[in-house]
Amino acid sequence: EAGVAQSPRYKIIEKRQSVAFWCNPISGHATLYWYQQILGQGPKLLIQFQNNGVVDDSQLPKDRFSAERLKGVDSTLKIQPAKLEDSAVYLCASSFWTGELFFGEGSRLTVL
Amino acid sequence: TQLLEQSPQFLSIQEGENLTVYCNSSSVFSSLQWYRQEPGEGPVLLVTVVTGGEVKKLKRLTFQFGDARKDSSLHITAAQPGDTGLYLCAGEGDSSYKLIFGSGTRLLVRP
Fold it and tell me: Residues 34 to 93 of B: which have CB under 8 A from any A CB?
C-alpha cells in the first residue's frame, strides 16, 4: 500500500517569496492534516480536513498561509509571503477517519 | 487550549539501561498515542491507549495511561541503539477529533 506522498522534500526561498507544498494521502483516507514542525519541537497542527471540508484551522496564520483540498483527495499548502520564522518541516498526515495518523516524510522549508 | 508537556526533553543513556519518558497535561484526553520519529522521516505510531489506567506492552516498551486520562508514560527496558529517536505523545481531545502533539523527548542510546 502506498504511503502519504509529499513534495518537494526540500525548498529554500528568500523571505517575502511564496512557496507551495503538495500532499497525496493514502487512498480512502477521509482525514488529512498539515502540521508544522520547528526544529527540536513537536508537530503543531495547522489545518485538518475531513474530506474536502475544514474541521480545524485555528492555528493557521491565515494572513499568509492557505490550504485547500479539492475533491477531497490531495491537498496543497501555500505560504505567501514567507517569513524567516516559517523555516520548518511541513508534515502531511492522513487517517481513515480518526485514530492512527500516517505521515509523509515531510517538506523541509528554509527561509533566508 | 490543550497542551501536552513531555519530560525529559533530552535523554542520553548507555545501551542496556532502563528509562521512562513522561507526558503530562491538565486536560482530559479521550485517547493518547505515542509516536517515534527518526531524522528525515515522519512520526510512526507505536501504540494507542484509550482507557484510564490502561497498560500496553510492545516488546521492551511499556505504555501506561493515567487513571484520569491526563497523563501517560513510556518505559523502555534494556534500551538499544535502535531505540534512538524522537518520542512524541499525542492526545485526542475529549470533545474534538483534533490530535495535539507534545514537545517530544529526544532519546540517544549509546552503544
Answer: 40-45, 48, 88, 90, 92
pLDDT of res. A1: 65
Whole-angstrom distance, CA of residue A69 vs CA of residue A54:
9
Cα separation, A15 vs A67, whole angstroms: 20
Beta bridge partners of A17: none
A103: its cell numbers = 505521515
β pairing state of B99-101 and A88-95:
unpaired
Read out DSSP for B18-60?
Answer: -EEEEEE-SS-EEEEEEEEE-TTS--EEEEEE-STT-EEEETT
Q: How far is B92 from chain A (nearest CA, A)?
A: 9
- For residue A30, CA distances in Å to A10, A26, A51, B75 come to 27, 9, 5, 33
* Rounded Cα distance, A75 and B111, in Å: 42
**Which chain A positions have a beta carbon within 8 Å of B97's beta carbon?**
31, 48, 55, 98
Kindly state the DSSP code that residue B98 receives in the 8-state scheme.
Answer: P
pLDDT per residue over A9-50, tens digit each?
999 999 999 999 999 999 999 999 999 999 888 999 999 999
